[in-house]
Specification:
The protein is α/β, with parallel strands linked by helices and about 400 residues long. It has 12 helices and 15 strands. Helix 6 links the parallel strand 4 and strand 5. The radius of gyration is 22 Å and the shape is globular. It starts with 15 loop residues before the first helix and ends in a 10-residue tail after the last helix. The C terminus is likely disordered. The structure holds pyridoxal-5'-phosphate. Pyridoxal-5'-phosphate binds next to helix 3 and helix 4.
Length: about 400
Amino acid sequence: MADRPRIPIAKPVFGAKEEELLLATLRSGWVTQGPRVEEFEAAFAASIGSAEAVAVSSGTAALFLSLKSQGIGRGDEVLVPSLTFIATVNAIVHCDATPVFVDVDPATYNIDADSVARALTPQTAAVIAVHQLGMPADLDALTAVTQPRGIPIIEDAACAVGSRYKGAPVGASGNLAAFSFHPRKVLVTGEGGMITLNDSSLARRLRRLRHQGMSVSDAERHRAQRVVIEQYDEIGFNFRMSDLHAALGLAQLAGLDRHLERRRAIAARYEQGLRHIADVQPPAAPDYADPNFQSYIVRVNGAGCDERDRLMDAMLSRGVVTRRGLMASHAEPCYRGAKTEGALPHTETAARETLLLPMYVELTEDDQDRVLQVLDESLEAGFQTTANRNSKGSRR
Ligand SMILES: *Cc1c(COP(=O)(O)O)cnc(C)c1O
């Protein structure tokens, strides 16, 4: 088994269309934000069903600009799950606002509306709902808590392109939703992000802010028949997406439905295979959720961090790459002492007990069977080594 190539955790898939559009864009001479970005924005908005889509340089930039555009700043508290990639939290801090960590629902790993209700203060200025690993968060439950107070929800949809909540694509709710096109996500441009929204004047402002506050875009100026002198009404940033990235995005969007179908088939097959492996729980999707399976998260019931990490090591030594499931941001040194709603028990358990199995479009059935076999074997071996220390030896 050792001489077979490693099965990676994720792998983007690029085809002839990506190559064709990328090359055409390169040959056009327009490589920074220009006509391809406009085209990608229009196609993305159409696929989501949002009125607007604003392309930016990363998912983090999309979150940061979304918060900025809601006036979030010093003295404001933003409620956020600790159980998320740390970028979500960093975006709050870069706005000079204060993150307040809330707990998650143990079944979906998504923000818990009750924890949000308990964390509200007069300083609460926004809530970030993360659609974690592409599992849609329960927006209606959250809105029931935030709406009476007029608190905006910003969606971290970094992982959730193609996921659906109550039948509608994530990003179509009318909240600002921030997507990422990093290679670990479902639609890949290398680096890149997108904000979807329904408010056209806010979209115009976001487009100015991503480009130094400039009142006209380069593409508009290029098309103009007369000289256009731009104006700067507010101080912006450089969060532009390049046309090269947008070319990839257009090609990836064309393949999205096919890729989603494949991911769902792989997930269904994992679920089937896991029935034969005791103590490992597949992810559970509530009725309202149609996830894109950006990642495939499993829970090793009752595992400690140490055991989970040893299991991952054992799998790696047998040629299967995994990752820890989700991080607890409040446990990282840089957020030590940050404000939390309470003890966050579900966050801490999930951070300890979960791991991600390989999930990508080109994962073959043979390789998937190998993942399951290696998981099973490694569990046996892993728990045997802990048998002397505790009662875990009797679990299998
Ligand atoms: C990937 C990710 C981000 C950041 O996206 P980048 O494009 O890497 O900046 C933010 N939040 C979550 C939940 C993510 O998974």
